[in-house]
Amino acid sequence: MARIARRNFLAASAAMLGGGAVARATASADSDWAALGEAVKSEMAWAWDHYRQRAWGKDEIRPVSGGVSSFPLKTHHLGLSLIEALDTLWVMGLDRQFEEGVAWVKAAADFDVDGEVSVFETSIRLVGGLLSAHHACGDPMLLAKARDLADRLLPAFATPTGFPYRFVNLRTGAVRDPQTNPAEIGSFLPEWATLSRLTGDPRYGDAARKAQRALFAKRSRLDLLAVKIDALTGQWLDRRATVGSYADSYYEYLWDGWQLLGDRECLRMYRVCTAAILRHQQVRRDGQLWIADVDFETGGVISSEQDELASFYGGLLGQGGARATGAKVTESWAALQDRFGVLPEAYDYASGQPTAVTNALRPELVDAAFNLWLLDRNPRWRAIARTHFQAMQRWNKAQYGYTDLADVTATPKRQADHCPGYWWSEQMKYYYLLFADTPRFDYRRNYLTTEGNILLGLRK
Length: 460
What we know:
Number of helices: 17
Oligomer: single chain
CATH class of the domain at 19-110 and 324-460: Mainly Alpha
CATH topology of the domain at 19-110 and 324-460: Glycosyltransferase
Mean pLDDT: 94
Strand content: 5-15%
Number of strands: 21
Shape: globular
Largest sheet: 3 strands, antiparallel
Radius of gyration: 21 Å
Distance between the termini: 20 Å
Structural class: alpha+beta
């Protein structure tokens, strides 16, 4: 596996493309970032202690009531939050907590369950979490657990197109629901190619690569992809092209196949798709830049609604060399954060109003800020993340942890009662890496998955 010194490559490619850091100057350069990093670490340790006391080995804690919920299975727990937290604990230097989490995985994590899981969610969260924990400590049992789980997901890929079914039974291999989407087809390569490299078994990377490339071949004459397709026939079932939910991580993993693996075919596909998105989906409104949903065959705008998940996209554009455009997209979402305090789940740029007032403790904006900051070290990106972190402390902190919100427009904001597994893997890690300048992370040569799992760049 080629390990690209991609930050040097990105700086050069951005210069060639004419991209520049255009984020506005701020007075944030004198902030005590190290103290903020320690605050993030302290909050992580506090939340872990509550999880340890009330939800140990369970998938998700309910931070308001102190109860638990299960995911991705409906009635059985796989230790989701614990596994997602592992490399975050390690990079923060919370070694005791990391070691007790690894001990639980080795003793109790068992995927031989007669139950149906999302192939996509289980891969990015659990397979990825186990691989990043293995990267941190090298324990071979973590790799064995990741391989066992991937083996249980592999039957989903046995389709005429190579696109996986959406659901598979972990014990029987029974599959369900071929009506799938780009994110659930093309978001496997970094984890599964890593698994192939570490085990010497090419099946995992081959299956992921085949699905990713076969979907690219289905693009329209405008080089756009829609959001719903049949895994058995390869026929499109929808016309909407978006960079939000159902598509987001497909575009990430085209770039990531180049970033992590040096796969030039992934780079070519990324460039083709990105050029089409920027040609047909950019919309400017009141000085802000949005990536609109369009008809994938005509390019006509079909909706002005923006999915919060799409706020990651400015960071990806920056990684791919379009730094000025990526900065503008990220600033548009940051302005929305300033307006509401916490981003609503959906927003209509035409009406200027939220269309979904919840927030599922989302990390995407700070993900974008982190990726842009890695490129140019502009303190503006740290400032956006600082606002995000402090708003989370103010509005999302509950008695037993951090919870999502039922209404970001209410005064005060109204809490729900759920902490998603990705909270442990994503924003807490992004905050810490942005603020702490930790020696445990290589800020020049690194790779984080769509779920925030570190597969390259941990320093022992």
